[in-house]
Automatic annotation (TrEMBL):
InterPro entries: AAA+_ATPase (IPR003593), ABC_transporter-like_ATP-bd (IPR003439), ABC_transporter-like_CS (IPR017871), P-loop_NTPase (IPR027417). Residues 10-247 form the ABC transporter domain. This is Phospholipid/cholesterol/gamma-HCH transport system ATP-binding protein. Involved in beta-(1-->2)glucan export. Transmembrane domains (TMD) form a pore in the inner membrane and the ATP-binding domain (NBD) is responsible for energy generation. CDD domains: ABC_Org_Solvent_Resistant. GO terms for molecular function: ATP binding; ATP hydrolysis activity. Keywords: ATP-binding, Nucleotide-binding, Transport. Belongs to the ABC transporter superfamily. Pfam families: ABC_tran. It comes from the Bacteria. It comes from Rhodopseudomonas rhenobacensis.
Length: 262
């Protein structure tokens, strides 16, 4: 395998996705590198969730190729595909916990799907994952309706980490959280990425997250990646959408708060 390919955990090439006559992704190319947190931004409705869902196989593409961990997911047989899926974790928008299951049952759900383990071991894994995301063991027996929004996000992250993935997809993980809760969550993602060596693909609208958590940013517009690079590169871009996003009123507020300037 070429070095270049080995370093791209996700490799998207020439991917087109349509719903009826509407083309959402148009021959899109994107690499997500090993060990990075990639922030994926773009206007509302641009297709960020669609790309995420296409990569994980929930949305069919018209054409193009997607490799994850060097495996072409179209060419893979069911067993090979399952082996790839076993190596990633997903936190969907809104947390998406099963409301009729306890926190423990939610976290154990993906583990049961792939592994046959004793209940004792499953309970140990649950407590360990809750600890990783900063939650006490007592939370295990609660139902999602008994949790705050921030706790739901943390439990959803614990579930995404249940199988010790190398790659995690986070779809707007800080949406609905207050700025302090969102900041804490960004810090948690950053710490986990560093300590576990995770690669993170994060769809976000949160400028704070882009500043504090992401190594690189990719911007989606008109069905393609219109820019990809560091925050400094995004800020230097003359592209109109990037200029208004990274230099607009909200962006100035974020930069101000990051530097302690009010
Ligand atoms: N299953 C579907 N059937 C038809 N159209 C769809 C489907 N899923 C998404 N779309 C359309 O694809 C476009 C992109 O949607 P998507 O949810 O990916 O946007 P997004 O960039 O994630 O937006 P947001 O930032 O608001 O979450 C939208 O126009 C949406 O209506």
């Amino acid at each position: 395998m070429a070095v270049e390919q080995a370093d791209a955990i996700i490799r998207v090439r020439d991917v087109t996705v349509r719903f009826g006559a509407t083309e959402v992704l148009d021959k899109l190319d994107l690499d997500v590198k090993r060990g990075e947190i990639l922030g994926f931004v773009g206007p509302s409705g641009a297709g960020k969730s669609v790309l995420t869902r296409t990569i994980i196989g929930l949305v069919p593409k018209v054409s193009g190729q997607i490799e994850v961990f060097g495996v072409d997911l179209d060419a893979a047989n069911a067993k090979e595909r399952r082996a790839v899926e076993r190596r990633w974790g997903i936190l969907f928008q809104q947390g998406a916990l099963f409301s009729s299951l306890t926190v423990a049952q939610n976290i154990q759900f993906p583990v049961r799907e792939y592994l046959k383990l004793s209940q004792r071991l499953l309970d140990e894994i649950t407590i360990a994952k809750l600890g990783m995301v900063g939650l006490a063991p007592e939370v295990a027996d609660r139902f999602p309706s008994e949790l705050s929004g921030g706790m739901i996000k943390r439990v959803a992250l614990a579930r995404a980490l249940a199988l010790d993935p190398e790659l995690v997809f986070l779809d707007e993980p800080t949406s609905g959280l207050d700025p302090i809760g969102a900041g804490d969550f960004d810090e948690l993602v950053r710490t986990l990425q560093r300590t576990l060596g995770l690669t993170v693909f994060m769809v976000t609208h949160d400028l704070d997250s882009l500043h504090t958590a992401c190594d690189r940013i990719a911007v989606l517009g008109d069905g393609k990646i219109i820019a990809a690079g560091t925050m400094a590169e995004m800020k230097a871009s003359q592209h109109p959408w990037l200029r208004s996003y990274f230099h607009g009123k909200r962006a100035r507020a974020v930069v101000g708060s990051n530097t302690g300037v009010v």
